Amino acid sequence: MINFLKYTWLYILISGTVIGVGLFSIFKWGYIFSIDFVGGTNIDYRFEKNINEREIRNIFLVNKVEVIDLVASGKELLVRMKTINETTENRLMQGLEKEFGKVTILKSETVGPTLGQETVTKTIIASILGIVGILLYMSYAFKGFSSALSAVLAAIHDILVVFGSYSLISHFFGAQMDVLFVTAVLTSMSFSVHDTIVVFDKIREYKNEEGGTVEYFANKALTETMVRSLNNSMTIIFMLLALVFLGGSTIKFFAVTLLIGTITGTYSSPFIATPIFVWLEKRKKKISM
Fold first, then answer.
1. Which residues are CB-neighbours of 267 under 8 A, at least 6 positions away?
2. Is the domain of 179 the same as that of 261?
3. Which is nearest to 50 in space by CA: 96, 100, 95?
């Protein structure tokens, strides 16, 4: 049996460093928000001949369209801008066709600011409902609040890691925070709780079968479940790595977020949730004495 809890100080140091760097990035650089949250128009056009970014920007300037982000690569144009109506877009296309020839619309989507705010509100509500659901289910399943609180704190740990990491990715690689990011975060939460339940169920099983301290039960449970948890996570990690390197640009950052969530979820179950659970159980025992 391996004494995993002996190195709790190391787990605190690792998590504190990762979360600290992430929080620094959030407050320093923040995020690049997609139109899902702030509203706006995204267009993806293909031309018959190579285009020039400076000339493209002049056309947008003439049509009084405020550009947030513009990428002109070869014959393809990707633009994120403030919300425009159909008339303005038609006038913009006419200007582009006059300069560069026929334009093929690959994608054109517009989200108003109201819908963007609604998306933010729904995201917050979904996260709160998820946390409350975990608390209620874990409290009922394990007949105690310590298990539920430990699982929720571990899930919050994972959320902070994912949000902080995504801020760094957003700053250095231009990833936009969109609905797919929210999906990845909620999926990561469920994965983290799933692993935590496996460990806690083993601890409960040992407590019912033999005598000993909560540290002993926790170390024994971690020793038995660690290899299984790692094997399960590695199958997911390999699949996500394939999506990151071979998938299209649309899902690349979604796969990266899931990859980070999977790794931190695998880490937090034994090294964050379990030490917290042991500490809460020992504290409860002292208070009852």
1. none
2. yes
3. 100
Q: State the pLDDT confidence band at 212, using cuts at 50, 70 and 90.
A: confident
* Residue appearing with tokens 């009084």: 64
The answer on pLDDT for 107 being more than 60 is yes
DSSP string, 69-120: EEEEETTEEEEEES---HHHHHHHHHHHHHHH--EEEEEEEEE-HHHHHHHH
Question: Are residues 74 and 183 both part of a single domain?
Answer: no
Q: Which of 255, 163, 154 is nearest to 195 (CA)?
A: 154
**Confidence check: pLDDT of 116 > 70:** no
pLDDT, residue 266, reads: 92
Residue partners of 229: CB distance under 8 A and separation at least 6 = 195, 198, 199, 266, 269, 270
Pairing of strands 67-73, 103-111: unpaired
Report pTM. Answer: 0.83
Among 179-183, 266-270, 280-284, top mean pLDDT goes to 266-270
Number of domains forming the structure of the chain: 2
| Pairing mode of beta strands 176-177, 32-33 | parallel
DSSP 271: I
